[in-house]
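Give me the fold.
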Amino acid sequence: MRSPRAIILPLGLMALACVACDGRGTTGAAPLLVFGRTGMGPGEFSYPRAAVAAGGEFYVVDKAARIQRFTADGQFVCEWEMPSKSAGKPTGLGAGPDGRIYVADTHYSRVLIFDQRGERLGEFGSFGQGPGQFGLPTDVVADREGCLYVSEYGLSDRVSKFSPQFEFLFSIGGPDGAVQFRRPQGLLLDENDGLWVSDSCHHRICQFDSAGRLVRTFGCSGSAAGELRFPYGMDWLSDGTLVVAEYGNNRVQRFDREGRSLGTWGRAGRGPGELAYPWAVVVLPQDRVVVIDSGNNRVQIFDGRAPGSWQPPK
């Protein structure tokens, strides 16, 4: 069994990665670790596009419909494949308080449930527009009580909430909703079980309280500070600030809770600290930020707390 190819950058290269030599602007702090390449072996990827952190480790699903589990330092632990994949591949992963892994099995209009070794434990959902049904589910998150939120597009652009027993509770959005989404791609919960949604094709983030009432939105289409272009995955740093993977801007942007930009990391490219269509970002203990560098078939990890990690807004 091959081990993942990892790159730990020497100090000289770390310094160079923080300096713009080609006129494209700076990237932020150099990554601590870069690993992955195109392939189907352990630590290799076929366009990775969703991730979730759980228990100090993280899980990645790619377009081969394969889920890989890694330690915080990028060491391969195990893998498993989805039971069906001919119709399409998953785009979202979630983790429950009990350690279960939830998969938004997008093209099969369902959520699948696994343990941390890949044993299938159950599923819920079916194709349709009714309560508890899905078109193309994109992501899933679990709150502290075990309730689940599932986002979807296709038939209905909405987010639905379910009880721990998978009973439908309510939806946000949809044709008759007070808030209209266009491909809600990523979901995140805060410490009060408030819901944050990356409304990707509206190029914005929407914040809701635990009852599903809109609190605020921020962002618009663009590449300046505070603007977004196809925001996908999100997570929290330990200081309560939000980090967002921007698929269309090839960067990760950091925001405070009011939606003010606090800086960015990354730029378009193939080198360390450069990104190609990042789908997801997850934060591990000690604010190690894991970026799923989808178009480069790799993972990059950087220190979200280190001086110079975030290029300031311009």
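Residues 6-303 form a domain with the Neuraminidase fold (CATH 2.120.10.30).
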